[in-house]
Design goal:
There is one protein chain. The protein is α/β, with parallel strands linked by helices. The protein folds into two domains: 233 residues, Aspartate Aminotransferase, domain 2 (3-Layer(aba) Sandwich); 122 residues, Aspartate Aminotransferase, domain 1 (Alpha-Beta Complex), CATH 3.90.1150. 37% of the residues lie in helices and 15% in strands. α5 links the parallel β2 and β3. The protein is globular, with a radius of gyration of 21 Å.
């Protein structure tokens, strides 16, 4: 058996090596490294895939979140409602702009923001909600949009872990994650379902005026070269990364199906294991399993993770310290968040290897190693 890794990008590359190598070589031959044709081609391809008119690439997912808030003209002191159980970038981008993160609770099953906790957190200073589509499935966007509409709030989707997930509204309408709110933000970090060979990100919107502002902001606020109408930043997707992403986008649905197959194998094996709770898929969306994350019940999570490591099975704990307990937010005059579900989940969850190159031998070994500890 080959060594098991959390994400096997080497094997994934080998299967599409010729296409990737040619796409990179084309950029080198053309010497169009910044804002070249490849970036436009990728934007158009992703726009078609997501069925959204405007896709604006940027340098990384954190920048995407920051630029989204800049484009909405949010001001220091404005409050943004956000889950605490997420990668720190979501809340960090809020703080970078001197906005105030208001942390709310998550659903213990989906790990996404719990709509029922949003409305009680709304004040006169609240301007936006950032639902995070964690681990591969979306938050309950229909409920969130109703709240946002009622209170005239913006919705910025953090879909860095859910690209390709499909949301179904009660009326049967289906729409891709990241295209439901006012602005969607994603990351193309190499380990994502759609990952490049470095850093990268993008923003999506249906609103032309917002798209124009975003395009200006990511390029120093320029309306045309050397004419700067807005305070912006330098956040561009390199042409080489765009070329890689254009190739890999063709395989995204196949990659997501493979992840779903691996997840099905795990879930089938663990469904009768009372020590663990397998991932829940909400009825309103598909799950693309950026991570396969279990909850522990009758076993100690950290001891289980150590057991797996000792037998060559990597496992990760996302995220051991929630955002509302991070030191970086102590300077904010926020009423201390009481988030018992978040605090509990942080102590229970762990993620198993999840990627497109796992074979049946590796999957069986991972399963058996987990079950051996849970006997």
């Amino acid at each position: 058996m080959e060594p098991i890794v959390m994400v096997d990008l080497k094997k994934q590359y080998q299967k599409i090596k010729h296409e990737i190598d040619q796409s990179i070589q084309d950029i080198i031959n053309q010497a169009t490294f910044i804002n070249g044709k490849a970036v436009t081609e990728f934007s158009n391809a992703l726009s078609s895939y997501l069925d959204i008119p405007f896709v604006i690439p940027c340098a990384n997912g954190t920048d995407a979140l920051q630029v989204a808030m800049m484009a909405l003209n949010l001001k220091p002191g404005d409050e943004i409602i956000v889950p605490s159980f997420t990668f720190i970038a979501t809340a960090e981008a809020i703080a970078l702009l001197k906005l105030t993160p208001i942390f709310v609770e998550i659903d213990p099953d989906t790990f996404c923001i719990k709509p029922e906790t949003i409305e009680p957190a709304i004040t006169q200073k609240t301007k936006a909600i950032i639902p995070v589509h964690l681990y591969g499935q979306t938050a309950n966007m229909e409920a969130i949009l109703k709240i946002a509409t009622k209170h005239h709030l913006f919705v910025i989707e953090d879909c860095a872990q859910s690209l390709g997930s499909v949301y179904s509204f009660d009326d049967g309408k289906k729409i891709k994650a990241g295209t439901i709110g006012h602005i969607g933000c994603t990351s193309f970090f190499p380990s994502k379902n759609l990952g490049c060979f470095g850093d990268g990100g993008a923003l999506f919107t249906h609103d032309q005026s917002l798209a124009e502002r975003i395009k200006m902001i990511v390029n120093h606020g320029q309306s045309q070269r050397y004419y700067h109408d807005l305070v912006g930043c330098n956040s561009r997707l390199d042409s080489i990364q765009a070329a890689v992403l254009t190739v890999k986008l063709q395989y995204l649905d196949a990659y997501n199906i493979k992840r779903q197959e691996v997840a099905h194998s795990y879930t089938k094996a663990f469904k009768d294991c009372h020590a663990l709770i397998t991932p829940y898929t909400a009825p309103y969306c598909t799950h693309v399993y950026h991570q396969y994350t279990l909850k522990t019940q009758t076993v100690e999570r950290d001891k289980l993770v150590a057991h797996l490591a000792s037998r060559g099975v990597p496992a990760m704990i996302y995220y051991p310290v929630p955002a509302h307990k991070q030191k970086m937010f102590t300077e904010y005059n926020i009423v201390p968040a009481h988030l018992p579900i978040t605090d509990r989940i942080c102590k229970e969850v762990f993620s198993l290897p999840m990627h497109t190159e796992l074979d049946s031998v590796q999957i069986d070994y991972i399963i058996q190693t987990v079950l051996d500890f849970c006997k």
